[in-house]
Amino acid sequence: MKDEITREERVDNLKGMGCSRKRVEDARFTQGKGNYVDDIKLDGMLFGDFVRSPYAHARVKSINKDTALKVPGVLAVLTADDLRPLGLHWMPTLAGDKQMVLADGKVLFQGQEVAFVVAEDRYAAADGIEAVEVEYEELPVLVNPFEALKSDVVLREDLVAEDGSIPAGAHGPRKHHNHIFTWEAGDKGPTEEVIANAEVVAEESMYYHRTHPCPLETCGCVASMDKVNGKLTLWGTFQAPHAIRTVVSLISGIEEHNIRVISPDIGGGFGNKVGAYPGYVCSVVASIVTGKPVKWIEDRMDNLMTTAFARDYHMNGKISATKEGKITGLQCHVTADHGGFDACADPTKFPAGFMNICTGSYDIPTAFLEVDGVYTNKAPGGVSYRCSFRVTEAVYFIERMIEVLAIKLNMDAAELRRINFIKKEQFPYKAALGWEYDSGDYHTAWDKALKTVDYDGLRAEQAQRVRF
Amino acid sequence: MSKKKHVTLNVNGKTEEFLAEPRELLIYTLRERLNITGPHIGCETSHCGACTVTINGKSVKSCTMFAVQAEGAEITTIEGIGGPDNLHPLQEAFKEHHGLQCGYCTPGMITRATKLLEEIPNPTEAEIRFGMAGNLCRCTGYQNIVKSIQAAAAQMSAAKEAAE
């Protein structure tokens, strides 16, 4: 045996960071032996699917399920009226709001769940859906959050008091019947003062559009209630199985220790599978009612229309600096379009997630952030699409502001970034919007990145190609 | 609902006979009736390719074909391409080159790639990208899928040369 081993040998022996490892699941996946939710089959399993609203905002005047119940293979049609005695027609959201499980008198977005048809198979369920007769009365539709905040049209009548006043929401006072919350971070007065007296100020309005994570596998679940032992087993496309267990327990009254939640192989999530959806609740109810396992699987249109979106942030920014390019202040206002229910999958404490990381990697002494959440006639959601909660939005905002400031200063944006990065010796660094950064060496990383992409060469090429 | 039709298929070398409504989609037949769950449902509109199978030598998206239309056909799914003891070079290559993450698109991807490599045994990158354009992946960004197919093509060509 050798007395000493080289560093390379030691690293290789450790099989730790930097060491290439084979994934254990790939052998199954490449042979088509994955076990996704839709692959699950249980004895006597039924299939549930939704009657969905064709309107973005409408009153539901009546639902007639008589014809549907006569369709061969259809066993039950659930509506909000069936769920009301059980207290299951609404469910809590992850953001402190509540959401209709099935349309309770009205619908707030296109594709909203109106009735749940339980049938022997998918074809019978589809036949049943066709046969459910729903009478709607169309209401004015609000799809622009700025207009929603001015409109007399009330989207959430359940959140307006009888005397017409607007009670506070889960995140404090609300300014208007279509307003959800205002969230602030940093110092308003000092920031406005710095910007008002600055040598240079750049402003920008940007809309980070609504997008859908769109995993290749849609959302779905299989609920199986064993009435003999009182235990519920729920397989599903869950990115947050523990949260799902809590929500199911809260609404069903089944104790958490009697609920087993299983997330088998998941066909992509990207944030879309964090939320709790009406399909999960209806499957559980249907399994309790029928005593049989019930499967619900979205189709692609259901997935795109109704399950959680990401972004939809209207961001207005002001950034101030000295003539030499040292940033002195940053102000950001966000109008956040949350759709018909506030089902944002952020931790409840932070209604705008980590948007207050929007000072980025820069040493910005004074800053202020204000986020207004707004109800509109769109699907609920607000998930972290391939990032942490609202970090993509924050990063897009600050980097765009840097670019705009660089144009205003007639300075190279790379140089502007170098001037303003938090310096290595400043760590641990306390940011103006409350975060403490533990460590970093941005200048070294920046130089390395610029060298890797041959930034000087790129600029020279640009100068050659673009002639004004 | 109309009258059920008698359907005979040969799937992965096995003859299957059953009665199906004319509206029954082939992907439903495979997954629900025959328990062949390798092909997946991603879109039911022919966009994503997760349900790709080979029918009489051609790549077909089984979510937009009725079972009755496949009457008498020979069908190969991922299950018929290679198992634990005889992995197809493409299955090996996808594993080796990280050509997948969640695995949902993979059966369709590999099934399509087997046909691509029959059509063009040594494809260029552009030919792979064009030949695989009907199969969507939301995880990988395609880079490693292209690499996997290139690696499998090289291995299959080398094996063929060695045999000749």
Average pLDDT rating of chain A: 94
Q: Can you count the beta strands of chain A? A: 19
Number of strands of chain B: 5
Fraction of residues in H or I helices of chain B: 25-40%
* Spatial ordering of strands, largest sheet of chain A: 3-7-1-14-11-12-13
CATH fold-level topology of the largest domain in chain A: Aldehyde Oxidoreductase, domain 4
pLDDT averaged over residues of chain B: 96
| Stretches with pLDDT under 50, minimum 5 residues of chain A | none
CATH topology of the largest domain in chain B: the name is: Ubiquitin-like (UB roll)
Multimer state: heterodimer
Number of continuous helical runs of chain A? 14
Q: Which term fits the overall shape of chain A? A: globular
Protein name (chain B): Carbon monoxide dehydrogenase small chain CoxS
EC number (chain B): 1.2.99.2
Enzyme class (chain B): oxidoreductase
Keywords (chain B): 2Fe-2S, Iron, Iron-sulfur, Metal-binding, Oxidoreductase
Task: Describe the structure concisely for a colleague.
The complex is a heterodimer of chains A (468) and B (164). Chain A is of the alpha+beta class.
What characteristics describe this protein?
heterodimer, A: 468 residues, alpha+beta, Aldehyde Oxidoreductase, domain 3, Aldehyde Oxidoreductase, domain 4, 2 domains, seven-stranded mixed sheet, five-stranded mixed sheet, 19 strands, 27% helix, B: 164 residues, Ubiquitin-like (UB roll), DNA polymerase, domain 1, 5 helices, globular
Written overview of the protein:
The complex is a heterodimer of chains A (468) and B (164). Chain A is of the alpha+beta class and 468 residues long. Chain A folds into 2 domains: 186 residues, Aldehyde Oxidoreductase, domain 3 (Alpha-Beta Complex); 192 residues, 2-Layer Sandwich (Aldehyde Oxidoreductase, domain 4), CATH 3.30.365. Helix content of chain A is 27%, strand content 26%. In chain A, the strands form 5 sheets. Chain A has a 7-stranded mixed sheet with strand order 3-7-1-14-11-12-13, sandwiched between helices. The longest helix of chain A has 19 residues. In chain B, helix 2 packs across helix 5. The model of chain B has no long low-confidence stretch (mean pLDDT 96). Chain B has a 5-stranded mixed sheet, with helices on one face. Chains A and B meet through helix 2 and helix 5 of A and helix 1, helix 2 and helix 3 of B.
